[in-house]
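Action item from last meeting closed. Structure (378 res):
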């Protein structure tokens, strides 16, 4: 069972994990060569490990693509308890090697981590995995338990004292979440796939059709909305930390991180049926990709405004450069994302994780980060 699940999440022969680890290693050593180190508070380290990795776990568990795969696995005779732990191992490996490894690369590049910091981060990741899975399993039957798990993670980040007491409390919390997870029936992780029922056809000329399509796409995948919020929060924390260390490129780097939003940047690549329909249109650029760019501009303008507000409240300096970069980055993203989706559509993916890991999604954020650093140095 583990082989089936790991092949689904990590790719054939773990190709996805290998690619991501290689990218993380290149990023980490490249940035580390700059010789810039910044102190990181214990609360930020724990909160980052729990929240970031925990949201990835929830995103994997609530994926409709994974639901279709699990529907067949649930029909197979198996040892329920063994399958439960194999499922946790597959989800944990995916979270660690394809997502958290990139975060670890940034920590390695800019933060001087002690062995105790690494221990705290590892305990936070364990809480994120088993706490996230336990919260997902309990939210239908006992939502108050899910709320306690989520609230407990946030409380530990801000209320734990420094030193060995923090590690002891985190270890105890890990044991509690592991126990809660271990008593869950495997059926609670079953997510009902989409029924395929289409909305009724309305007569007359459709209005704001593309905007309604994107809105319905995001609402049907609510974890994508949460992912956007997490990216903005992570960018804000990282940017404020850079600003406090005298590196006045934090605002630009944070605005560039907002463009990492994958769902909207791959809306055509993720829907092969939509791609075929667009190929059949006589003028897909004018009828679809131009409105698509306008919707993206509005989305990224709002996201950048939210980031600048949070960045300013957290103590960062916005200034005129920040406002210019917010509009400039939103405009550039709204131009280049439709261009890439039109001319370089990703069609070689087999599962959703393959699409999320595609190197193409890093082209625009990398270019914007470089621009942000250059503008900040002017």
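Sequence:
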């Amino acid at each position: 069972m583990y082989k089936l699940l790991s092949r689904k999440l990590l790719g054939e022969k773990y190709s996805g994990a290998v690619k991501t680890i290689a990218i993380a290693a290149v990023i980490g050593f490249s940035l580390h060569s700059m010789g810039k180190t910044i102190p990181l508070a214990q609360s930020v380290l724990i909160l980052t490990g729990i929240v970031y990795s925990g949201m990835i776990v929830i995103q994997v568990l609530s994926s409709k693509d994974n639901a279709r795969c699990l529907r067949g696995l649930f029909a197979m005779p198996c040892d329920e308890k063994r399958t439960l732990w194999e499922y946790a191992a597959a989800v944990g490996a995916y979270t660690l090697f394809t997502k958290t490894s990139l975060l670890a690369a940034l920590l390695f590049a800019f933060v001087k981590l002690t062995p105790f910091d690494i221990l705290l981060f590892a305990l936070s990741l364990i809480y994120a995995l088993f706490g996230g899975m336990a919260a997902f399993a309990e939210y239908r039957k006992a939502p108050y338990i899910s709320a306690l798990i989520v609230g407990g993670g946030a409380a530990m980040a801000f209320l734990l004292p420094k030193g060995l007491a923090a590690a002891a409390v985190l270890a105890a919390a890990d044991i509690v979440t592991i126990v809660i997870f271990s008593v869950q029936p495997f059926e609670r992780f079953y997510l009902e796939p989409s029924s395929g029922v289409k909305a009724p056809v309305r007569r007359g000329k459709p209005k704001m059709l593309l905007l309604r399509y994107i809105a319905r796409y995001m609402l049907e995948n609510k974890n994508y909305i949460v992912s956007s919020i997490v990216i903005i929060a992570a960018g804000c924390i990282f940017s404020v930390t850079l600003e406090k260390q005298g590196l006045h490129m934090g605002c630009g780097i944070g605005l560039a991180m907002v463009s990492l939003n994958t769902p909207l940047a791959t809306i055509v690549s993720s829907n092969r049926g939509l791609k075929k329909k667009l190929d059949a249109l006589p003028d897909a650029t004018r009828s679809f990709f131009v409105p698509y760019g306008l919707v993206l501009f509005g989305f990224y303008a709002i996201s950048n405004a939210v980031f600048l507000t949070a960045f300013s409240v957290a103590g960062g300096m916005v200034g005129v450069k920040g406002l210019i970069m917010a509009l400039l980055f939103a405009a550039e993203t709204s131009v280049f994302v439709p261009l890439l989706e039109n001319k370089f559509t990703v069609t070689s993916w087999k599962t959703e994780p393959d699409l999320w890991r595609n190197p193409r999604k890093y082209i625009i954020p990398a270019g914007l980060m470089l621009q942000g650093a250059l503008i900040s140095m002017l």
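Note appended to the action item: The CA atoms of residues 241 and 258 lie 16 Å apart.
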